[in-house]
Design goal:
Keywords: Membrane, Transmembrane, Transmembrane helix. This protein has helices at 4-38, 47-56, 74-108, 113-140, 148-170, 172-206, 214-245, and strands at 63-64, 67-68. By secondary structure, the protein is an all-alpha fold.
């Protein structure tokens, strides 16, 4: 026969151990969930999502200023959903760009586990958000969820281009003033150079002829000496011929 008394002690020990482990696990999960809920969110409030939910749950029979609110058109809801998807793309891109740097900092011990938990919680929330947007898009139009983020990406790029164009337009007056001043300064420099060159030409025309230099005088004196010598050589012959005729 089985000795139940001898088995009661180990069975009781195992029951206490399993119960304590289960209690510890449940308490740990609760504390972890409370800690995760108390952590500051990675991103601020999702305004576009809140607007979409507000439009979705807007009661058309509600009374406001003694008038019934009209039903929200489906086109408005689709536009709001696109805006929501656009904000989701911005947040997903931000998470991708920050993950690598945050991982390196975590490995070096530069950041704590709380920051990493916040980041992981933000990733999970964005995964659920993307799935929800795809489901909402498919509810409006079949297979729209496959292309809604592509359309949202194009909208985001158009918004970026518009912002850049607005920035350039805001700086247009300043750039015109800068280049106008630069053009005026360049023209002023050209006019000064032109006036200086004309004045130099006029002074050169008005100036008297330059006096002969010493080299010119020496050359002229040498030429005069040669002429005098030539005349002196030729003149005695003439005198002799004259005497012979006499």
């Amino acid at each position: 026969m089985v000795d139940w008394l001898s088995l009661a002690v180990p069975l009781a020990y195992l029951g206490v151990l399993i119960g304590s482990l289960a209690t510890f696990s449940s308490l740990y999960r609760k504390r972890k969930a409370q800690k995760a809920a108390s952590l500051e969110p990675w991103f601020p409030a999702h305004l576009q999502r809140d607007i979409y939910f507000s439009l979705m749950h807007l009661d058309p029979s509600a009374q406001q200023t003694e008038k019934k609110l009209p039903a929200v058109p489906e086109s408005v809801l689709k536009t709001s959903l696109l805006r929501r998807a656009t904000e989701d793309i911005r947040r997903v891109l931000a998470l991708r760009s920050q993950k690598q740097a945050l991982t390196v900092l975590l490995q070096r011990g530069s950041v704590g586990d709380d920051l990493w938990q916040r980041f992981q919680l933000a990733e999970k929330e964005m995964e659920e958000e993307v799935k929800d947007v795809v489901a909402e898009a498919n509810a409006y139009v079949p297979n729209w969820g496959q292309v809604i983020f592509q359309s949202a990406n194009e909208m985001m790029n158009n918004d970026l281009y518009r912002k850049r164009m607005a920035e350039h337009q805001s700086k247009l007056a300043e750039e015109k003033a800068f280049w106008g001043k630069k053009k005026a300064s360049i023209q002023e420099g050209f006019m000064k150079e032109l006036d200086g060159s004309e004045g130099g030409v006029a002074e050169a025309e008005k100036a008297p002829e330059a006096a002969p230099t010493s080299a010119t005088l020496s050359v002229q004196s040498d030429e005069d000496a040669v002429l005098v010598e030539a005349e002196s050589v030729s003149s005695p012959g003439k005198k002799k011929k004259g005497k012979g005729k006499k």
